[in-house]
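[Q] Does anyone have a clean structure-token version of this?
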Amino acid sequence: MKLTLKRVHLLDTCTIGELYINDVFFCHTLEDLDRGLDKSMPLSAIKAIKKKHETAIPTGTYKVINSFSPRFKTYLPLLLNVPGYDGIRIHAGNNAAHTSGCILVGDYNGWLDKRIINSTKTMAKLLSLLKAAEKKEEIIIEITK
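[A] Here you go.
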């Protein structure tokens, strides 16, 4: 299964994106501020630009697995081998204060709104699809602008 996250609205405190599953639109996303990081950059450059809890992960392609999150006390998608980051998950949340580098899923309310809604419901749907897919195939996410 291929997830594609297209970052489409680069706001002053967060980034709003569109999440596609196998090229079909699924939902909107909210991440921290996009500071132009790319997976191909040297780790030293990523660390120099990154502001902890305020920076979206580097663009690039990552393997995704479902694993138990001690923080959330449930199984959630985990992105593997994100340079300069640990524990990057896809989870529910509504604004940049809820992300710390992670990807939040839900519905976007409007062009300059800095939050998403219906996140818990959207996350439940996504988790169901990912659990079914992981039994049959590898799951990857490509993050682009």
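[Q] Thanks! Anything notable?
[A] The first strand starts at residue 2 and ends at 10.
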